[in-house]
């Protein structure tokens, strides 16, 4: 009997289309954050932002335990078995049952934490919604099926609803708890809403046929180790800043700086979210040349954008921060400048992790890099934060990401080398330096002008692309080619 296909490869959304969906959502998320961040910064102040940052970092550890690596593992397994609807359905229900079980355990342990906590108890209680939301998160299913439009559609609506709720109800500093509640509740709502699409993609399976612990517990745990390690070094800095400095403002400054970098990264890494599922499929059918080609193209694109962000943030931070965050956030300028290399460094490990190590089944091996980065982060945070506060945390984060990227490149040497990476990025760095010098001159006597930031943005983009084209960089050549194609298509129209 011929197996029923859940995804006809001829009808599967193309990478470009899925990337477009993902990019649209990331741009929407960026715009929403761009609107809400200045508002919330002024309403809640650096101390209020610091409280949210610290408590959110604590709940994140419990959320990652609740997830237990099911998202990454589930996406890979769905991608590998998507041609068989029955297999896909069985795998989905097994992984989902496992997620519900681990979420339940996490909620119980979290409840104990709330009881014994002496600070921020009420905030922790509200953040329970964030942990519960993990059990309802099935976005990994649609990502594995490469149906990113479904994820984008629902999440976009939820993000807009969250925006409206914040502007409607969060109007004074004392409404920090309400802000925390809105952020947690919208996350839960977004995950629950994804279940409306389930009947069209997954069929019912007898519970007697499901073996979540026997078949998936070990594998999800393998995914869990690097995931928890990643979360530790990305969240530990906020936790340690709050615990060591006892300064809510320090946490607030650090949170706002990381928010800008995270917005940049979200636009960058939407491509990798799409490519992970496709690369998992290509590895399963042994198409090595196509895998290498997509890795090279990803490096061309992501490094081009990340280098632009890096030099743009460095040169424009002094003018940008005062008008964006408001008065009292001056320390964010230096933090942003120090953090600016992170998008480039992270893009290297992100590409190799999502397009080589994870889809090829080397998640356990990649754990070595994550653990090494985590240890680097913990040690340096312990040394640097007591002396330099939030600035020390930045140094620790960059060092940790560098360690991970170095190890990942070594592990992926059969697919790309440091020489290839350098050949891809050196022209982009040269273009970035030229751009930074010129936009720096534009804002040299300005400290808080929206107009100057817009001029810097437009001028910087033109200069950067112009230098890339002049140096005959592949990314610049690709842009020229796309412009010519669109021009020809436009002329062809009657």
Describe the protein's architecture and organization.
It is globular and about 70 Å long. It is mainly alpha-helical. The chain has one domain (15-489). The protein has helices spanning 15-67, 70-81, 85-116, 121-126, 128-136, 139-144, 148-169, 176-193, 198-201, 212-245, 248-268, 270-285, 288-325, 331-339, 342-357, 363-388, 390-411, 418-442, 450-470, 474-492. Helix 5 (128-136) packs parallel to helix 8 (176-193). The chain contains 20 helices and no strands.
Write the layout of secondary structure elements.
Layout: H1 15-67, H2 70-81, H3 85-116, H4 121-126, H5 128-136, H6 139-144, H7 148-169, H8 176-193, H9 198-201, H10 212-245, H11 248-268, H12 270-285, H13 288-325, H14 331-339, H15 342-357, H16 363-388, H17 390-411, H18 418-442, H19 450-470, H20 474-492
User: Structural class, judged by helices and strands?
Assistant: mainly alpha
Q: What integer is the average pLDDT? A: 84
Q: Roughly what fraction of the amino acids lie in strands?
A: under 5%
Radius of gyration: 23 Å
- Number of helical elements: 20
Instruction: Choose one word for the global shape.
Output: globular
How far is the N terminus from the C terminus? 51 Å
Total strands: the figure is 0
Count of all domains:
1
Could you give a short account of the major beta sheet?
none
Regions with pLDDT < 50 over 5+ consecutive residues? 1-13
User: Secondary-structure element order, as H and E?
Assistant: HHHHHHHHHHHHHHHHHHHH
Assign a percent range to the helix content.
over 70%
